[in-house]
Each structure stands twice: as structure tokens, then as C-alpha cells.
């Protein structure tokens, strides 16, 4: 039934993350910038997830004055606690007059509890954004396990065409229900005109040496061991070059041992977690992403928006933002040698590095703004509620690669 804008619709963002990263920033951006004269956002965390949600995400939600609803812990009995959690979520949805459920997950089989709770609460609009391509942890039985949940989900949202293709090919999802909307960033926060030399001095780096950097959690997915290996190869080839990783995580000790073993401790630096990491990005001459698997990365867009030359691993989703040899260099996955060759190529050709950075800056400004993302989401909400005509199903005409 066609609805109108007269009543502000309430959107519950269901969040199941366990670490603070790109997904959390994506969700916070949606929450903060959605048009509240049309849609009123709140965050809902299930009882099962309440003990796993990263404190920083909770703090950011509360600091922004956003409504946070947390279901009671349902207990440890597997079957009973699942049912209790579904029931508790349904009561929250009913009590708070939720119109739209928008699940944010990094798992292709995530969101089962809130989907069931939404149906129990009589909510007709259920959307699911799946931030990570299913190939990263695909299990064949899941395509059958998720079928009933997919049937009652209005749209599955992906952040890249490559992710969309995997949802369709690996999981057998209906192309007309899988909608691609690229991530977007607040472009005004990322200033491409800066002084790397001065930035290096302020952070204690030698301003005379190149600085090659990465930003990301120190976890297996990010492939930092290949970045460390690349650093050793570059230093062996041309001598003194500084490298830095900004971030923390469970592989910190292992990575520091690798640096020590390779004898590059003088030049390889660990900055730890930095709430404001942009001064480090400003100081970098080349940015690197060595991820083993990755969605459509916000950090990738931020590097582009800062006007930085980049060397990234050749993920399908990265290819949709970075045109190889035009906006940056895309190199073989899980290869320190390939990363090193990319870094050496840019260090040896500053004109090329500057050209790639300028092209990347123009591309991110044209295609990947937060304003465009917010409009995408509100148009999709409008369409699904029947407020106005919008045709995300037109994406079904996009060729699906096999």
C-alpha cells in the first residue's frame, strides 16, 4: 500500500559486529546523516551480541545522541536462548514502532534472529547489507540454510558488483533482490592538499626519507605480513625507507617478531591504534593495502580522497574503484614481492605516482561521496515502503559474471 512522508518512519539498524572498523564507520555515517525529517534511526543490538559489540561503537552511538536499544541476555541454552533472543527483539521492535529493519552484517548467513523477530513483530520491510563477499568464508550448505530468510528479506544490499555477483552465483540469490550501493565517505573530512614533510616531522619521522604506510587492524585478513615482507625487499633494494602500520590487533607480537627477524626494525614502525589516523596518512608518500580478502573498503576511498598514490592487492571490489595503472597499482594477492615491486615503481617515478593520485582523487569525488550513499539508501527505503517509485530492480539487468 502506498504510504506518504507525513509520518516519519523509524529505521532500526541491527548491528552484529565484534570489532571496530569499516563496517562500524559505515553504520555510524548512515545513522548521523540520514534525513531525520523522513527517517528516524536507532541502533538495536541483540542479547546474543551485547557482550561482543566493540565499546568504541557503543560510545560513538551514545555520543551522537542516537537511540540505542539492547535486548536482554537470553541465557546460554542454545535452542532456548535463540528463541528468547528472537522474542526479546520482537518486543523491542513492537514497543518502538519500527517501520524498517536494516541489518548490517559481515556474514552472508547473518541476521537470522532479527529477521525472525521482524516477522514476529509484523514488520514488512527487511533489508540486509552484507559488507563482506561470501567467498571469504563460504560453506555450501548455507545457500540452503538461508533460503527461507532470503524469501522474507526485501533486499540484500552489497557494496560492490563483485560482492553482488557472489551473492547470486555462490548463494543462488535472486538478482532482483540483490542491490548494489557503493560505500561513500565525507569528502570534506579528507584534505588532499597537505605537507608530507612537515607531517613527518610532527610524527617523529625523518622528513628526508620516503614514508610508506598502511592503516588497519593487525589481523590475518589484512595481510600485514606481506607488507612487512615487502618492506624488507624495498629496503634491501634501495636502502633507507620508512614504513609504518597504524592499528592494533592480535597479530601485533607476531608482526613485530617478523620485523625483528628481517632486521628492519630501524625503518619499520608500529603506531598502534590512533583514533585520529589522518596525520599519519598525511605524512605517507605511498599508501598500501595488503588485504587477503576485503569488501569495498572505506580506507581505500579515504586514501584516494587524501590524494595519495596507492598500491593495493588485486581484489575484485578494489578493481571497481581503482583502475589499475590509472588510479593506482593493483598487485598480486599474498605476495610481498608484488607489493614491493609496486612500491618501487612509484618511488622510482614520482610523476607517475602524482598522476595516479590525482586520477584517484577525481574518481572518488565523482563516484563515492557519502551524500550519494545516503540518497541511495533513502530512495531504497522510499521504494520498499511504496512512498515513491524507485527501481533498484533495474540492477538485475547488470551482467552477472560467472
TrEMBL record:
Source organism of this protein record: Candidatus Chlorohelix allophototropha
SUPFAM superfamilies: UDP-Glycosyltransferase/glycogen phosphorylase
Gene3D superfamilies: Glycogen Phosphorylase B (3.40.50.2000)
This protein's name: Glycosyltransferase
Listed Pfam families: Glyco_transf_4, Glycos_transf_1
Residue stretches making up the Glycosyltransferase subfamily 4-like N-terminal domain: 20-188
GO MF annotation, one: glycosyltransferase activity
Boundaries of every Glycosyl transferase family domain copy: 203-360
Keywords associated with the record: Glycosyltransferase, Transferase
InterPro entries to which the protein is assigned, alphabetical: Glyco_trans_1 (IPR001296), Glyco_trans_4-like_N (IPR028098)
Enzyme Commission numbers on file: 2.4.-.-
Amino acid at each position: 500500500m502506498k504510504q506518504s512522508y507525513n509520518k516519519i518512519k523509524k529505521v532500526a539498524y541491527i548491528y552484529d559486529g565484534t570489532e571496530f572498523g569499516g563496517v562500524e564507520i559505515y553504520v555510524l555515517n548512515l545513522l548521523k546523516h540520514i534525513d531525520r525529517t523522513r527517517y528516524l534511526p536507532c541502533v538495536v543490538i541483540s542479547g546474543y551480541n551485547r557482550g561482543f559489540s566493540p565499546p568504541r561503537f557503543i560510545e560513538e552511538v551514545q555520543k551522537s545522541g542516537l537511540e540505542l536499544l539492547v535486548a536482554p541476555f537470553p541465557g546460554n541454552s542454545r535452542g532456548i536462548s535463540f528463541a528468547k533472543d528472537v522474542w526479546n527483539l520482537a518486543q523491542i521492535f513492537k514497543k518502538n514502532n519500527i517501520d524498517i529493519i536494516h541489518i548490517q552484517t559481515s556474514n552472508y548467513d547473518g541476521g537470522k534472529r532479527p529477521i525472525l523477530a521482524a516477522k514476529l513483530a509484523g514488520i514488512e520491510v527487511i533489508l540486509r547489507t552484507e559488507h563482506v563477499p561470501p567467498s571469504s568464508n563460504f560453506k555450501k550448505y548455507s545457500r540452503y540454510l538461508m533460503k527461507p530468510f532470503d524469501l522474507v528479506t526485501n533486499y540484500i544490499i552489497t557494496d560492490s558488483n563483485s560482492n553482488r555477483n557472489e551473492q547470486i552465483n555462490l548463494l543462488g540469490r535472486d538478482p532482483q533482490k540483490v542491490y548494489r550501493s557503493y560505500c561513500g565517505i565525507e569528502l570534506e573530512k579528507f584534505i588532499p592538499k597537505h605537507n608530507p614533510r612537515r607531517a613527518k616531522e610532527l610524527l617523529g619521522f625523518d622528513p628526508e626519507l620516503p614514508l610508506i604506510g598502511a592503516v588497519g587492524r593487525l589481523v590475518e585478513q589484512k595481510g600485514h605480513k606481506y607488507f612487512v615482507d615487502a618492506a624488507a625487499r624495498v629496503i634491501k633494494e634501495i636502502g633507507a625507507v620508512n614504513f609504518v602500520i597504524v592499528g592494533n590487533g592480535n597479530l601485533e607480537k607476531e608482526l613485530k617478531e617478523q620485523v625483528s627477524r628481517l632486521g628492519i626494525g630501524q625503518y619499520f614502525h608500529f603506531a598502534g591504534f590512533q583514533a585520529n589516523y589522518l596525520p599519519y596518512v598525511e605524512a605517507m608518500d605511498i599508501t598500501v593495502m595488503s588485504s587477503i580478502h576485503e569488501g569495498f573498503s572505506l580506507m581505500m576511498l579515504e586514501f584516494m580522497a587524501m590524494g595519495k598514490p596507492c598500491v593495493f592487492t588485486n581484489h575484485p571490489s578494489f578493481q571497481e574503484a581503482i583502475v589499475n595503472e590509472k588510479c593506482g597499482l593493483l598487485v598480486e594477492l599474498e605476495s610481498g614481492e608484488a607489493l614491493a615491486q609496486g612500491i618501487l615503481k612509484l618511488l622510482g617515478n614520482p610523476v607517475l605516482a602524482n598522476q595516479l593520485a590525482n586520477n584517484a582523487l577525481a574518481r572518488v569525488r565523482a563516484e563515492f561521496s557519502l551524500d550519494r550513499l545516503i540518497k541511495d539508501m533513502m530512495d531504497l527505503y522510499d521504494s520498499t515502503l511504496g512512498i515513491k517509485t524507485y527501481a533498484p530492480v533495474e540492477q538485475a539487468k547488470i551482467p552477472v559474471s560467472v
